[in-house]
Structure formats: C-alpha cells, structure tokens
Design goal:
71% helix; mainly alpha
C-alpha cells in the first residue's frame, strides 16, 4: 500500500549507482551501461509504486517527468502502429530504443526531483572521473593515433561530439563545485582540454555550440561564482578559443575548406554534400509533414519524399537519408508524428528551459538543454540511443547537482 513517506535511502544508492555506471561506460560503446540504466529505472519504478504519495506530492515535479514519459510513449506507440519489415526497420528500431530510454528517464527523473538526500559529493566524483577518462582517451585518439576525426569506440564522429558536449558540461560544473582555491584555473584548463577534444571530432556544429553553451552556463551560475569571477571566465573564453584555434589550426582549416567546397557544389545535388543535404532534408520534411499533419508511417513518408524529389531534382541530396532521419529534431518529428508529436517535443524543450530557472537557477541544466536544442537544429539527438541516454543522464545529473543541504556561497 502506498504511503506518504520518504523512500528508503537504499533506493537512492541503487538508482544512482546504476546511472553512474551507465554514464561512465556508455561513451565507450558499452551496451552494459544502457542495460544498467534500465535496471535503475526499474528500481525507480518500484520506489514510485511504494512511495507514490511522497513522489507525487509536489505537482510541479510531475511536469518534466510527465513530458519525458509522453515523448517516449509517442515514439513507442508510433512504432507499434506502423512498424513493418523492410528498408525502414532500423528507423523503427531506433525510435523504439530511444522511446524506451525516455520512459525510463521519466521515472528516474521523478525520483531525482524529489530526492531527499544531498548527492553533490557523488555527483562531483562521477562527473570528474568520467570527464577526465573520456577526454584523455579522445586526445589519445586524435593526437597519438592520428585519427582524422575522434570517434571513441563508435563509427560516427558527430555522435561523439554530442556525447562529449554533455559529459564536459557536467564535468565543468563539477569543477566549479569543488572546494578548492584553484578551481577557476582548473576550470580554464578543463575548458581548453575539452574544447580541444570537440575540435578533434571535426564536428562543425559542436565547435560553434560548445563555447556558446559553456558561456551561457557561466553567466547563469548563481552561488558558485562571484561577479568578478564570472567576468574573468567569460573574458577568458574567447581568448582560449583563439589559443585552441592556433593549436588546432590544420583541423579547423580542413573543416572550413570542406564547408566552402560544399557551398561550391550547391548546383550538383547528386554529389554528397552535408550542408546542402541538410537544407534539402529540412525542406522535404516540412513538405511531407504538412501533407500528413497527423503523422504517417516511415514508408509513406519515404514515398512522399521520393515524389517531391521527382518534381524537384535539386533536392536529390535527401535520397541517402530517406530511411534514416531528416537531420532536424523538430522537422523530423513533424514529418512522421505530425503536429501532436511536435507539440510534445516543444513542450519538453520549454519545460526543460523553465526548470533551469525555477524553483532555483540551475546553470548546468540550462547548458545541457541549450546544447540539446541547438544540436537538434541540425541533427536528431533522440534518434541515437547513445546520445539519448547520455543527454538524459546529464539532465538527471543537473537535477542532482542542485540537491544540497544549504546554499554554497562565495565571497565577491
């Protein structure tokens, strides 16, 4: 029978131990971490059933987990309605996996939002260990193995750039939470190293987004930084960008050259062109979604896109991606799940941004949410299981980072 009492501390330790293992292992391509994350969600669900009144007493804390549950169920139900064998089976499998991960996140997040224990020490330890190991391995691949684009243990450098962004934002927040007189210098050093790993992935979006979200996080930090320290860090970011640019000049110049080449080939849609293909995908996904505002199967969307290309051959660059996704989170959702899918996703984004300011300002949650949204403008984060679980874990970590017995104050 459900009782309005605080959950036993064992639930907290078991749930977050699983999350910590997942956070540490998933960046290296381990499926074990994802399975342990599911186990953590099962434990959170048991705690939810046993402590229903306590975990639902604060109605405001139900909104964000409820939206994760809604977005996850939307993917799972959409797959259940339309899934069939064929060329789009991998697309259906991806949305099944990410939908289940979002549902799992809903229960862990609900527990974290109502967490009665102070978890800051554990948060700092896990964040620092994971961040250091991931970045050292990335630098090793890029500088010593001379891999053109760092991929960790994946085969997609772009996905790695997104994973590294979320992990590094969590690590940088943990550094600010250290009770160490040299933490600002550590933060500056960490930013240089982490931005170096982002550059080594060769992902243009990450090179632009990462320093922006770090700057946003610094400005949003309330109790951990004085105004003078904020000004010092914000001023240091552009200087550090210049230094990193000089150190990794060849890699940056290569990506700029690729960008220019893509623009020069704008009149040749039959040639693989990542920039023009993305623009074309957004055009066709908007048209396909408008033609089926209540959603449709991947097969019908594929037929609709092929029909559009037949009448507008300049959009041919979309062809290789028809059975994958349309490289824009909102438009991809619109083109297969329709208006209701977009409304759920937008509600989730808005709720995350609001939660970053209420009831207390959470700089880490703001940074993670901003990066999730910005990357979603040129890719689909909730299509990759690795990206989905790491960003969900980063959001959970953001909540736990603010769980403290008393506010931490610093002298101006």
């Amino acid at each position: 029978m459900s009782k309005e009492k605080i959950p036993h501390p064992a639930f907290s330790y078991l749930i977050y131990l699983g999350c910590a293992i997942a956070f540490c292992t998933i960046p290296f391509g381990s499926t074990t971490g994802r399975n342990i994350f599911y186990i953590s969600s099962y434990i959170a669900f048991i705690a939810f059933c046993l402590n229903f009144r306590y975990l639902t007493s604060n109605k405001k804390n139900l909104v964000l987990p409820g939206l994760f549950l809604g977005v996850g169920l939307a993917s799972v139900l959409w797959v259940a309605a339309f899934k069939q064998p064929g060329e789009f089976i991998d697309l259906y499998r991806s949305y099944t996996s990410t939908g289940k991960l979002q549902i799992a996140t809903a229960f862990i997040l609900l527990y974290a939002l109502n967490e009665p224990l102070c978890m800051q020490r554990a948060f700092i330890a896990v964040a620092l260990i994971t961040g250091i190991v991931v970045n050292i391995y990335s630098l090793y691949q890029g500088l010593f193995l001379d891999i053109s684009r760092v991929e960790l243990n994946f085969d997609r450098a772009t996905v790695v750039a997104y994973l590294i962004t979320a992990i590094n934002l969590v690590m940088l927040q943990a550094i600010l939470m250290l009770k160490c007189r040299y933490r600002l210098w550590l933060y500056i050093l960490a930013f240089m190293l982490t931005y170096s790993t982002v550059i080594l992935t060769g992902t243009r979006a990450a090179m632009l987004v990462y320093p922006v979200v770090v700057g946003i996080s610094i400005l949003a930090t309330k109790d951990l930084l004085s105004r003078r320290n904020k000004l010092a860090l914000v001023t240091a970011v552009p200087i550090l960008l210049i230094v990193s640019g000089l150190v990794f000049k060849p890699q940056i110049e290569q990506r700029i050259a690729d960008f220019k080449t893509n623009l020069q080939l704008i009149g040749q849609p039959q040639i693989d062109n990542s920039i023009i293909s993305r623009i074309s995908m957004q055009i066709v996904s908007l048209k396909a979604g408008t033609a089926a505002p209540l959603g449709e199967s991947a097969e019908k969307r594929g037929d609709a896109i092929r029909n559009i290309i037949a009448h507008e051959p300049q959009l041919y660059g979309v062809t290789p991606y028809i059975n994958v996704h349309m490289h824009n989170e909102l438009l991809e959702t619109y083109s297969i799940k329709g208006v209701w899918g977009v409304l759920l996703l937008l509600s989730l984004y808005i709720s995350l941004f609001i939660s970053a300011f209420r009831p207390h300002r959470n700089a880490l949650l703001l940074g993670v949410t901003a990066s999730l949204f910005m990357y979603g403008l040129s890719d689909v984060i909730f299509f990759s299981t690795e990206c989905t679980v790491i960003f969900c874990l980063a959001i959970i970590a953001s909540v736990l980072s603010g769980k403290k017995k008393a506010a931490i104050k610093v002298k101006p």
